[in-house]
Amino acid sequence: MSLDNLRNQSFPLSRIEDWQAKAEETLKGKSIEKLKSSTYENIILKPLYYRRDKQQAPEYPGGTDFRRGIYPLGYVTNDWKVAQKITYHSVDQLKEKLQGSVEKGQTALSFEVSEVLFDSKGIINELLGDLPAEFPFAVNGRGLQSALLAALTERKENADLVSGYVGSDPISLFVETGFIEEDFFKSWMIDIKLANEKLPKLRTVLINTSTYHQGGANAVQELGIAAATGIFHLQKLLDSGMKLENVLGKMIFQFSIGSNFFMELAKIRAARILWNKITKVYGADPKDRGMHIAAETSSFTKTVYDPYVNLLRAGNEGFAAVLGGVQYLHITPFDDITGSSLLSERIARNTQNILKEEAYLQKVVDPAGGSWYVEALTVELAEKAWQYFQQIEAKGGMLEVLKSGWLQDEITCIRTKREQDVSTRKQSIVGTNVYANLAETAGSSTIQTCNNLIGVDGTNTIKIKRIKNMRLSEPFEKLRKISEENESKSGSKPKIGMICLGELKNFKPRLDFMRGFAAAGGIEAVESGSITSLEDAKQFVIGTDTKYFCLCGSNDHYESIGHDILSELNREFPERTFYLAGLPEKELQTKWANEGIKQFIHMNSNCYEILSTILKEMGVALNERTKA
What we know:
Layout: H1 3-7, H2 16-26, E1 37-38, E2 44-45, E3 81-82, H3 91-103, H4 123-128, H5 131-134, E4 137-140, H6 145-153, E5 164-168, H7 170-177, E6 179-181, H8 184-198, E7 202-208, H9 210-213, H10 219-239, H11 244-248, E8 251-257, H12 261-281, E9 293-297, H13 309-324, E10 328-330, H14 342-357, H15 372-394, H16 398-404, H17 406-423, E11 461-463, H18 474-490, E12 495-501, H19 504-519, E13 524-531, H20 534-543, E14 548-552, H21 555-572, E15 577-581, H22 586-595, E16 597-601, H23 607-627
Parallel strand pairs: 3-10, 4-5, 5-7, 7-8, 8-9, 9-10, 12-13, 12-14, 14-15, 15-16
Antiparallel strand pairs: 1-2, 6-11
């Protein structure tokens, strides 16, 4: 074939029906509907999005509903700020770390606000020096916002150059403390107004949805809450006499970014659609309707064990936030749960620098824009979130749904679904409920509830249900801790004996499954080797220091030798507990149970419950043995 002929070659045109036929052929006759999946937002995801899924979207960022960003040229002209939240033990350490961070790529001043910063007058401005004139703030002041703003208004030089945000969201603080203090709004609004006069470029009104995210909320709930909280704060400040453009210029929204990459990307885009719609109703000028967003990678998704996997999780989440078009970003250090180190903080900061400098995300305008999948998901998410927002408003708004407990119950429902999926390993947590490393130990979690919350004086205070911050991996981490405690008492790791029937090729698939299953609870699977007779099985049970055993083999070997071996083992060792790897046909399950199988362990088993029961029984037996 000549070069010209080669150049003129093209792929034949294919229709969606051709793809469906090929896909169903691969699925061996099953319907293409099997490839659809449902999210916690009750959104059905299709296996393929194509031209018919195209949604109308602005031609460029900064246009119409702001879904594609608030600046026409995106990060090319308005780069996102690297806002790594600095932790510290002393004022001197904070000063040193702030200076070192901005020299190594940090572009915003972000740190936890603690009472130590106000031990003496002027300490804040002394440690900050000239940095606020060059770098914007990215600070959630929480209950100490008032003190920090007061300190910043005392700056003798460059007060008008102070920018970024030092915000606080009273409602999210109420949710964390479990008390609504309505009088708190009075002093909060005074602080906002004063900062508006003294620090004109600083945003001070924070709408913080991270509290709900860390409690298990889905993206629809987060967006509905953001819209409802935004309106609550907006109306409060308008009623106090502030002008609409001034209030909008003081507002910033904070989101946590979870592990569902495209859902989180769409969440940021949908948030701007909702806020544009709301502010348009208020009559805001288009230039004031763009939502400013601060994002942080989720602590909800992070783990104590196998913490280096957190590097991948945080990188994925940070990538989604940037593609979504945030203005400030904090990426969680991989060992943040047990206390971050200088190394992990450096890696977290450099993850953002890599996204900027090596992935060139600061040079591409809205790389996700126009994607059929992203645009379709954004629209559906925005529509569902708008409906949820309307539900909140119909019930009286944010304070009322918190007082009644309706919102807390809604979030609990989603969290329970997530926990169930983790327990049954329908949702994988690498290094925790799948691919756990038995040789690994971990320190205790050092994450604690921040003490810079609002004070509760008991007057005009309403008690509400708290939404506690949690992590999905916590239940399995507790099992690992129980396993470690048992090991320290007994001198050996908890074990389950694996009675392997037949040759290696017959039992290996289920043996591998059981190894991973047991390891999720810190339990070692002890392999028998090939067992073809009752005598082999007896010798293995006698020689293995555990009460718990599981039969592993093919269905054929279960039927040919499994029943006889199990019946005899159960008769001779009645104090032992026997499990079966796999799920037999219904008509066989009763027979296995009568022969001594306590439980069938299979892909849909509740891993957490089974391992929890085993470890508790082991602990009780160990305590009795110790007392004796």
